[in-house]
Amino acid sequence: MRINNFAKMNNTFKEGNVKFNFNVNSAALIHIYRINNQSAIHIANIVRNYVEDKKTNLPLGASLSYWNDNSQYLKARLNTLLHNGIQGGVLVMSLLALFFKAFSSILGCYGYSNQFSRCFIIDVDD
Predict the structure, then answer these.
(1) Are 87 and 58 within one domain?
(2) Are residue 81 and residue 115 in the same domain, yes or no?
(3) pLDDT for the residue numbered 126
(4) In the chain, how many domains are there?
(5) Who's near 113: CB < 8 A, 6+ residues apart?
(6) Could you tell me the pTM of the whole model?
């Protein structure tokens, strides 16, 4: 069975002007991406500050805003990792405290977190 049997197919491409609307007004769209080792959160903060600074200098009837900020998802994931790490550290320390002395549990938890954080340190030689 082929698609042509029950549907009409048009394989065409039409090049023309692309028009955007944002809040029922005509708009221009600018995509901003990070490259290489740039921080997505840092770039988003720069764009957000730029938009806030330029809003005061715009003529009447013009507006400037940002949309679809994906750095918010990254911030939420980093917060989740931080909270899970803290909870895991408390759990490890409490389990060690059950079986060993309190000082040994604190020392073990410190060593665990220290070695875990060293896994993410990367020495880059230029």
Answers:
(1) no
(2) yes
(3) 45
(4) 2
(5) 85, 89
(6) 0.60
